[in-house]
Amino acid sequence: MPPHISSPSRVSSREIWNLTWPQILMMLFQFLVGFTDVVVAGRIHPNVQAAFGIIIQCQFTLLVVGMALSNGGIAAMSQSLGAGMPLRAERYAGLMTTLALGLCGLIVLLGWVLRDIIFSLLSVPQNLLPLTNELWAVVLWVIPANYLAIQTMAIFRSRKNVLIPLASGMIMCLFNAIGDFGFGLGMFGLPNFGAQGIIVSSLVAVSAGALFNCFMLWKKGYISSKAFAPLRWQKKAAPYLLRVALPSGGMQVLWQLGYLVLFTITATLPMNQETALAGLTAGMRIESLLFLPAMAFSATGSVLVGHCLGAGNPAEAKRVGLRVAATGAILMSLVAAIMFPFVPAISAFVAPDAAVQAQAISYMRYNLVSTPFTVTSMVMTGILTGAGATLYPMKVNSMSIWLVRLPLAWFLGHILWQDAAGVFCAMLISQCVGAAAHYYVFLRLNWYRFALTAKRTQRA
How far apart are CA 187 and CA 254, in angstroms? Predict the structure, then answer.
């Protein structure tokens, strides 16, 4: 086995932590990029903040193909490295990146052509439509840079090299913060471009991070001419990548569409639609800070489970999966308990408008209570992705949002309570159902049968 890959026979707590803490910081920097956007938007005007909430959700929807391919790539690369086959891992890296960038152009084109249909389906308020269209035209330019950043970070993570993505996240955060406050609010003696300045800053920041990743891949030798495998190999290897990516992409599409429907339900509440929408946007940004460590634990579980299964050790994969999930849920629940008394102060910082603050406070209180369930679902999704068993999270997450969350959100928000609190309560209930279903899958079903076995990959 190559010296840079540790033996997966027994994963230590130290290895789990060494993989997790840099990813927590990396995701913190990524969070600060979006958080800064929302904060600066709120200081321009509440309508700008509401428009950004819509734009961000639409942008996530366009990124799902790139994220799905990176999930498939992490599973294939981690299992290949665990099996002691670095060349196969490099070839999967090249295949994953090529497919992602090739599809990116089509996705951007569809995003532009279908923009009016998208905003119509979302029931965007008429007074927000001009601004939303204006911002969307610039956001589409950020998508290719995002795709490149997502794929290159996946290559480093699969190799357990998480310090370079951390440095990349720092670069993005720095560029974005300077640009947002400078070109968004006219600080530091820079021209004030308002909302357009925020979007352009994101483009520059993400591009800088992606280019840094590419340079480090070349310097580390993780990508070379060997990454571009013969067509014969690609034809045999692509089915596994797609078999993992397609359910992952389907899950993310259904998940993001579910959030778009949730925005629509919120935007059409019987009263206070605009403040409820802005409060939902602000609350989700605050909430995402809490769940950054959960995302890091999810990523750690994905890589470690992939390495264990690649080495033919499903028992260790199951053991380390349980440890990572339990540790993440317990730690994040403690953090949520500490945050609870400070929700009003945090909401006031993100949303200066008093009416928006009230909605954000309501959102945060419901979602802090759901922390152990939300974290469990997030980490289990990552673990099953590392095993290549993305079919299970797709079913569980889609069920929890489409069969539980959305019907309840409409009933509680529009019929019973006629308030945004009904939408937030429905989110809590759906997270409880999702966590229970994930544990059933992990403990009772044969999810490790989806792994890329040595026998199968030798034929590729």
Answer: 40
Q: Could you tell me if residue 452 is left (phi over 0), alpha (psi between -120 and 50 degrees) or otherwise beta?
A: beta
Is residue 262 within 8 Å of residue 277, measured between CB atoms?
Answer: no
Contacts of 436 (CB under 8 A, 6+ apart): none
pTM over 0.90: no
The tokens 């309840």 sit on which residue? 408
As a whole number of angstroms, the longest Cα–Cα distance in the chain is 63
Q: What share of the chain is helix, strand, coil (3-state, %, to 5)?
A: 85, 0, 15
Q: What is the mean pLDDT of residues 368-393?
A: 93
Q: Which helix (H) or strand (E) holds 28?
A: helix 13-44
CA angle 103, 104, 107 (to 5 degrees): 90
- State the Cα–Cα distance between residues 131 and 240, nearest whole angstrom: 42
Which helix (H) or strand (E) segment holds residue 350: the answer is helix 343-350
Half-sphere exposure of 84 (CA within 13 A, CB side): 7
For residue 446, the 8-state DSSP code is -
Q: What DSSP element (H or E) covers 160? A: none
Closest residue by Cα to residue 329 from 283, 286, 297:
297
Residue that has been written with the tokens 């949520």 in this structure: 336
Closest of 132, 166, 150 to residue 56, by C-alpha? 132
Could you read off the pLDDT of 220-258 as tens digits, one per residue?
Answer: 888 887 878 788 888 888 889 889 999 988 888 888 788
Q: Give the residue extent of every domain in the chain.
A: 13-459
Which residues, at least 6 apart from 102, have a Cβ–Cβ distance to it below 8 Å?
Answer: none
Query: How many helices (H) does the chain have, and how many strands (E)?
Result: 21, 0
